[in-house]
Amino acid sequence: MADIRRRAALSNALAQEILAAATKAAAELGIPSSIAVVDESGHLNAFTRMDGAALPTIEVAQDKAYTAAGFGFPTDVWHDIIKNDEPLAAGAPTGIRRLIVFGGGLPIKVDGEIIGGVGVSGGHWSDDIKIAQAGLAVLG
Predict the structure, then answer these.
(1) What stretches of the chain adopt beta strand conformation (E)?
(2) Model's pTM, two decimal places?
(3) Range of 100's domain?
(4) How many structural domains compose the chain?
(5) pLDDT tens across the length of the chain (140 residues)
(6) What single DSSP character describes residue 101?
(7) Which residues make beta-bridge pairs with 107?
(8) Cα distances (Å, whole numbers) of residue 94 to 15, 45, 88
(9) Helix or strand or coil: residue 59?
(10) Do residues 54 and 122 lie in contact, with contact meaning Cβ atoms separated by under 8 Å?
(11) Is 77 within a domain?
(12) Which of 92, 136, 129, 116 is nearest to 9 (CA)?
């Protein structure tokens, strides 16, 4: 059929590898975190909440991964998009459900194609980015 799209998909095995690498990085940094890996449609594939990670980090990590997968770019890019656009800055963070506009969410890309997203919440957003990047390092 000509009207069928085919997309690369994130396997659970790869999601678990990303999760394990990110969890290891968070432990090495001493930052108890929640870490979420979602597929290309933003559905949760793998998740952990490390001992000591605050309860709200559960939702924030998942929303960071969802935002990164859905838009195809890191969540911290949103800050630059909205900072000089008053109507967008006022409406996007509260009007777009699950949108996160600070760092810690990265898209997962293979051969230029988005196959998912990883989101980390537990430390400062700059540390969350480092932990997410460590997870993506398994891609090579």
Answers:
(1) 34-39, 44-49, 105-110, 113-121
(2) 0.93
(3) 12-139
(4) 1
(5) 688 988 888 999 999 999 999 999 999 999 999 999 999 999 999 999 999 999 999 999 999 999 999 999 999 999 898 888 888 888 888 888 899 999 999 999 999 999 999 999 999 999 999 999 999 999 98
(6) -
(7) 117
(8) 29, 26, 10
(9) helix
(10) yes
(11) yes
(12) 116
